[in-house]
Design a protein that fits this description.
homodimer, mainly alpha, 18 helices, elongated
Chain lengths: 320, 320
């Protein structure tokens, strides 16, 4: 006698491959608890065995019957839905939030440029005197033109800006208000990512910082896939174009991808970039493996090691 | 004796081209009121005349003296600043606001797509059931997941979306809040443009609608330049690439540029597009000329004429 289980139920076939007992599953939840049902049926029937390949072929024909198609379809649908439900892992949230930050950054830049161009019809002196978009937006929302000009030591009388009425200033301020809101959104998202990472990958976060780590995971697809990558792949992650150009045309290989934004790399002299990126990728590879297998926290030590090696002044020469 | 005036002052030269009297301007404001000063000096001296070309050449050498350079520089600077101040015309505000709407539209699309992708991890059924971005954003801000699913007749039990905690939902809602704010910004800007146009170009606005009219003025550079354009130029404004491709390679000439978005063109069958765009451009050309020279309002009649000609059903055949 054979025991056979699929998504529709548990079946006992005799040696002529006729069904002699069965338990049908009502829904995919019962299928997930199939061990329980198999146990139940095993208590009723002794000397059960698994069907061999030849028997299996004939046995499966039994399920071609139309009476099963409904059960197959319904249970499969339920099962798929629950798998999809589970697929929204912290990784997926992290990747969404990271992409969202990227887009928010681009949008802030776009809108801030538009805002300045528009605002400069009204008060060009202040716009030119303020470098940071964020400060610029905050100031024009909080203060009047005369205050702003006094703040940079200019005289409102001399201003090249037009004297606009309230009606013309209002849409400019609405735009500024939106840009301000986008800055706040960016902060919310960054702290969300940071708290996600504290649970998901504290080691990698400690080594390379919140945003760079998030981008690496996003580029790799998940923490699992990042942890499976060799350090040399992590080093050039995000520089795929340059890498393929190197392989096709023999141009110089890229020294770093996303890692170029890491403070250790960015602050070092250009000729050291490749060396630092290599060491950094090495530590990230270690850290992500520890994170994925839920090992203990050693991220601070990894980072400290890198800092000692590269950021002490004058050390560049020795280690180069 | 000669009378000569420039930005530094009013001067009287005798026949040997020596200065015998002068009034120096303190700033560019006095230069703007120069008529007054000229009057004053004319009362003191009789039989003044304008210098001829030959005299002028010698006379100007007098101003090469270094003692004038300061006055030239300061007064010119003031004059330039005041010209810049005046350059912020309603046209300039209109163009800024129009560009800003264009960008806001693009940004709303970008962020709404990101929002949906992220939100679909949580509640895919509702996102798929709601076409309009604007309604989608409003609904997810105002209602809970269960309500939303009930609204589209779905069961929260069956949802493929993950069960996210408040901590994960919050950044999604912040993003939705921003998109909502951007929709409001767009409305503010559109009503601002509409009110600007009511003063600036009521006729053109009546013929082609607020946004299309704003884009035409933006593309032309100002209402003045739009009013100077022939109807055939207005017809293809915004299709410069296609026009130059036509001239260079002999490809088909464009039938319309910005005007393709006008409801009369957009709703008509494809083969009628060129014909309608031509008639429309014709009326816009008339309307913008009336607007620039501040003529009376006949925009409604122009529009009515077009509507009668093209939007009555079945008329397409007759007029084609």
């Amino acid at each position: 006698m054979y025991l056979f289980t699929n998504i529709t139920g548990v079946f006992i076939f005799d040696n002529q491959l006729n069904v002699i007992d069965k338990i049908l599953f009502k829904d995919s939840k019962e299928y997930k608890n199939k061990a329980e049902f198999i146990q139940k049926i095993k208590e009723k029937h002794k000397s059960l065995k698994e069907p061999g390949d030849a028997d299996m072929e004939k046995l499966l024909l039994f399920f071609k019957s139309k009476s099963f198609s409904r059960a197959f379809c319904d249970n499969n649908l339920q099962l798929t839905k629950s798998c999809i439900k589970k697929s929204a892992s912290p990784d997926a949230m992290l990747i969404q939030a990271t992409n969202s930050i990227d887009e928010t950054d681009k949008i802030i830049n776009l809108l801030a440029r538009r805002l300045r161009e528009w605002y400069e019809l009204y008060n060009p002196e202040f716009s030119r005197a303020t470098q940071s978009h964020e400060k610029f937006v905050e100031d024009i929302l909080g203060k009047e033109k005369i205050e702003l000009l006094a703040g940079i030591g200019a005289d409102a009388e001399d201003s090249m800006g037009a004297d606009l009425g309230q009606k013309d200033i209002e849409p400019i301020k609405s735009l500024a208000q939106q840009v301000h809101g986008l800055y706040q959104l960016r902060n919310i998202q960054e702290s969300y990512i940071s708290s996600l990472m504290q649970d998901l990958c504290p080691n990698a976060k400690a080594v390379c910082g919140t945003l760079i780590c998030a981008k690496l995971i996003g580029r790799a697809g998940s923490l699992k896939r990042l942890s499976e990558m060799p350090a040399s792949t992590i080093q050039v992650l995000g520089a795929e174009n340059a890498l393929f150009r190197h392989m096709k045309t023999g141009a110089k290989p890229p020294r770093h991808g996303i890692l170029v934004h890491h403070p250790l790399v960015a602050k070092a002299p250009d000729r050291m970039h490749g060396k630092i990126a290599r060491a950094l990728a090495d530590k990230i590879s270690i850290a992500s493996k520890i994170d994925y297998f839920r090992g203990e926290f050693i991220g601070d030590k990894l980072r400290e090691h890198l800092d000692k090696k590269f950021s002490a002044k004058g050390n560049f020469e020795k280690s180069a």
